[in-house]
Amino acid sequence: MLIREATPEDWPAIWPFFHTIIAAGETLTYPLDLGEEEARGWWYVAAPSRVVVAVDDAGTVLGTAKMNRNHMGNGSHVASATYMVDPAHSGQGVGRALCAYSVDWARTSGYRAMQFNAVVETNTRAVKLYESIGFEVIGTLPEGFAHPTEGYVGLHIMHKAL
After folding, report:
1. CA atoms of 133 and 135, how far apart (whole Å)
2. Which runs of consecutive H residues, i.e. helices, occur in the chain?
3. Which one, 61, 124, 136, 152, has the greatest CB density within 10 A?
4. Which residues does the UniProt record annotate as the domain N-acetyltransferase (predicted)?
5. Partners of 145 in the β-ladder
């Protein structure tokens, strides 16, 4: 798998799984009815932030990551990232590759840490993945997420020193 800078031409491949993941309402704090143009504007962020895609040998987009500073000003030394993997390619190491790539990007870009602000506690696959890469849950916002089937569940804040 190759991870490369996302281009505008990748959006038609990203949008279907992006929309599916968001509309399911199980893992991210995006509005469930987020439209395509607004979603594209939220995902394709300007430098120094970065958007990448993971592609297979045939060029099929398997997943995507958005990497950015977590805060501005005196908090701009902490990075963050958001990941989406096409459910058709789940369990194939795409999320792990994107997460490892973003950690390397943050480190080489001079960030001192990475922080994920809102990891849904019922998203146990993501929590386990992040922990395996060295992230720790440093706090949980009780009932911070309205899960469509589990009700109100916590949002983890996860951190990794770089």
Report:
1. 6
2. 11-24, 36-43, 94-108, 124-132
3. 61
4. 1-162
5. 153
DSSP 8-state secondary structure symbol assigned to residue 100: H
Q: Which residues pair with 50 in a beta bridge?
A: 67
Contact yes or no for 152/143 (Cβ under 8 A): yes
Residue 21 CA to residue 28 CA, distance in Å, equals: 8
Please give the angle made by the CA atoms of 16, 89 and 155, to the nearest 5 degrees. 75
Cα four-point dihedral sign 149, 126, 32, 155: positive
Rounded average pLDDT over 63-87: 96
CA distance 18 to 21: 5
Asked whether the beta carbons of 146 and 29 are under 8 A apart, the reply is: no
Q: Which helix (H) or strand (E) holds 6?
A: none
Distances (CA, A) of 97 to 7, 55, 88: 19, 11, 16
In terms of pTM, does the model score above 0.70?
yes
Residue whose entry in the numeric block shows the structure tokens 């997943």: 63
Terminal Cα-to-Cα distance of the chain (whole angstroms): 25
Residue 40, classed as helix, strand or coil, is helix
Per residue in 33-47, pLDDT tens? Answer: 999 999 999 999 998
